Automatic annotation (TrEMBL):
Residues 466-500, 526-535, 683-692 have a biased composition (Basic and acidic residues). Residues 275-394 form the DUF2433 domain. Residues 645-662 have a biased composition (Gly residues). This is DUF2433 domain-containing protein. It comes from the Eukaryota. It comes from Crucibulum laeve. It holds the Pfam family DUF2433.
Length: 692
């Protein structure tokens, strides 16, 4: 069904266009909320929990609500139209599903059929209750549709089949004006995800709105129609607020659209962080060229798609669609002219006003925070509330001491003095502790900086051993040890001299007069062996296994593997994750190895963004189905970790089961054990770590 006020179909498929609508008709209304003072609650991603809107509005004392998408526009029949991946994503984030049930449904061994047979509309959205009147909205709600909605439900709103009191769906053909607090606030809305390769595809949409299989996206003709709508209702006395699901902070085309619409304010969602953000371009760009660069990147992405489909589009669009397409292309071409001066404080003639005057808010999900616009006497104040991150773990996280270390008052620190927040110390194979680490009540080890003994703790005000006696005994033992070493060296020198003279030389008189060569004491041998067993002091405190220096893996990483013969760029990898690419913080592409597959690591800002990437990525990348999964360490996968420095491929590369520092120290002393080769050419061991 198609109302007379809607323009002709924007579908680019070869099909007969509906009858053209009468020109110069726009679906617009003005709502007077409170001419003196009013508060507007702005939230994102209510995800079907529609009954919470009244509670949130009551807590904020709001006169109206602006919502930026993922409202929960689903009904019972929608389940048959949602594909398995989208249904799993909705199950993962639906606030209507109890946590225990969600964990069971999303178990790795559960096939999609289990989720489909268990999840009903009551677990996904309260929209049927709103439609039937069991839930009523207490104040006006203005929303765009998000990335996960049913396109057929949205089309019924456009056609007038669905009409719910206080619910207003903003789109490219529908606008509203709020008269509140001395401000006429013009609401312009654009829903759906911004997916460049779908900007000329209507999917299952039968009219101007694009979507299918439980997802919705923005098309080029919708952008053109929104520009047409804004131009028809333009009023110099109004303040323009652009409401989008995609963020103008990340999508250059949305930022260009805000310029063309002359937006004073923008509100968006889609990034799913725990903090809302408030900014203008001047505050986040180094200079005006940085702002232009962001817009040019959006233009380049659009141009690539446009050049590939231009011939097909020209063949199927009608005259009305041609007008809208030209306006969409004017948005893409809208780049502010370069300024002759640059820098944070630079000004120039003809500077783009939006560079400093257009203010943007990107909202976190409704469960984590909100924005309140307080409008009074013509001034729009902003109140941001965010749940934020939980840093309490830093006070409770401790590092367990190694088995060979004595109990300490503080956690053991690593080389650079930082406390690892989550990862414990490296395990040490069980073996008898060397004498220098054995706990004892004897003399404490000397201080490393002064060479003197550390102070002995007093027990009930008295020292356990007299300090003077201890110093005297220590000096005596040291002198005896040196005398014995000198005697042994003299005897060895005499033997060497005798062997060179054919054995006829006279004995060393000093050896004859002196005492017999003493046998090395047991304690001296043990001390020497213990010194050989010590780990090297460089890069280690001696109390734990030396670290390799490799940083811990980013916890929210997706691992990808595909044939090496297929070239791929970082931009193509980001586009592979579709609407989830906004959560990507880094793409790591290790160097290729001969005969090995191409490996890629895609890091996300948080777990939710990573889960969205796992759910929303495309099936193929350059006609290849890559392996896509969460990157896990070996311990998490149930494999035995390899300890570098103990037979692993770490420093020293010792032999199987016993290489590393200890073996290297024995080899240097000529005391190799178990047939180890002195040059450390034993087994290489395992790599350890994660997928790499």
């Amino acid at each position: 069904m198609q109302p007379a006020s809607r323009p002709a179909s924007t579908s680019t498929r070869p099909a007969a266009s509906p009858l053209p609508r009468p020109q110069h008709q726009v679906n617009t209304q003005t709502k007077v909320l409170d001419t003196a003072h009013g508060r507007i609650l702005c939230i994102a991603d209510i995800r079907g929990r529609i009954s919470a809107l009244n509670d949130l509005a009551r807590d904020a004392n709001a006169k109206a609500i602006i919502h930026t998408g993922d409202f929960g526009f689903f009904e019972a029949e929608s389940l048959d139209r949602i594909n398995d991946r989208t249904l799993r994503h909705l199950t993962m984030y639906s606030p209507l599903i109890p946590s225990a049930q969600r964990t069971h449904l999303l178990a790795p061994d559960n096939p999609p059929a289990v989720i489909r047979s268990t999840v009903n509309i009551e677990l996904l959205s309260e929209f049927p209750l709103l439609l039937s009147g069991q839930i009523k909205l207490q104040i006006p709600v203005y929303t765009v549709y998000g990335a996960c909605e049913d396109v057929q439900v949205i089309e019924r709103f456009r056609a007038g089949t669905y009409n719910i009191e206080n619910l207003n769906v903003l789109d490219e053909a529908t606008t509203r004006c709020l008269d509140v607090g001395g401000v006429k606030l013009r609401l312009l809305g654009l829903g759906g995800a911004l997916v460049p390769h779908k900007m000329f595809d209507n999917g299952d949409g039968k009219a101007t709105i694009a979507g299918g299989q439980g997802t919705m996206w923005t098309t080029a003709l919708q952008i053109g129609e929104l520009v047409d709508t804004a131009q028809r209702v333009f009023d110099q006395t109004e303040t323009r607020l652009l409401v989008t699901h995609a963020s103008p902070g990340r999508e250059g085309i949305i930022a260009q659209l805000a310029l063309v619409l002359k937006a004073d304010l923008t509100i968006s969602a889609g990034l799913h962080f725990r903090y809302a953000t408030s900014y203008n371009e001047f505050s986040v760009q180094g200079d005006f060229e940085g702002f232009r660069h962001k817009l040019s990147i959006g233009k380049e992405a659009f141009d690539k798609v446009w050049e590939s489909v231009k011939g097909q589009v020209d063949a199927v669009i009608d005259d009305n669609q041609r007008v809208l397409l030209d306006k969409a292309l004017s948005v893409v071409e809208r780049l502010p002219p370069a300024q002759p001066s640059s820098g944070p404080g630079a000004t120039a003639t003809g500077e783009e006003p939006a560079w400093k005057n257009c203010w943007n808010w990107n909202l976190c999900d409704a469960a984590y925070g909100s924005l309140i616009l307080d409008v009074k006497e013509g001034r729009i104040s902003a109140e941001l509330k965010s749940q934020g991150f939980n840093y309490a773990y830093r006070r409770t996280a401790t590092v367990a001491p190694t088995p060979t270390s004595a109990t300490a008052a503080l956690p053991t620190v690593n080389v650079n003095g930082s406390f690892p927040p989550t990862k414990g110390s490296t395990p040490v194979p069980e073996r008898p502790a060397p004498p220098h680490l054995t706990p004892s009540t004897a003399t404490p080890p000397p201080d490393a900086t002064t060479g003197k003994d550390s102070p002995v703790p007093r027990v009930n005000g008295a020292t356990p051993v007299d300090k003077a006696e201890r110093e005297k005994q220590k000096k005596k033992e040291k002198k005896e040890r040196k005398d014995k070493e000198r005697a042994a060296e003299r005897e060895k020198a005499a033997d060497n001299k005798g062997s060179r003279e054919g054995g006829a030389g006279t004995p060393d008189p000093t050896a004859q007069k002196g005492a017999p060569t003493p046998e090395p004491s047991t304690s001296a041998v043990e001390g020497k062996e213990a010194e050989e067993l010590k780990s090297p002091t460089d890069g280690s405190s001696g109390l734990r296994t030396p670290k390799t220096g490799k940083p811990p893996r980013h916890p929210w990483t997706i691992f990808m593997r595909m044939p090496q013969t297929v070239p791929v760029t970082e931009a193509e990898i980001r586009d592979f994750f579709g609407e989830a690419k906004g959560g990507i913080t880094r793409v790591n592409m290790p160097a290729l190895l001969p005969g090995r597959a191409r490996l890629m690591y895609v890091e996300f800002g948080d777990e939710e963004a990573m889960r969205a990437g796992l759910d929303k990525h495309a099936e193929k990348l350059k006609d290849i189905i890559p392996e896509v999964k969460q990157a896990l360490d070996r311990e998490a996968r149930g494999e035995a970790p390899s300890y570098r420095g103990f037979g692993g491929r770490g420093r020293g590369r010792g032999g199987p089961g016993g290489g590393g520092y200890a073996a290297r120290g024995l080899s240097a002393a000529g005391l190799t054990r178990g047939g180890h080769r002195a040059n450390g050419e034993g087994g290489r061991g395992d790599h350890g770590g994660g997928d790499a």
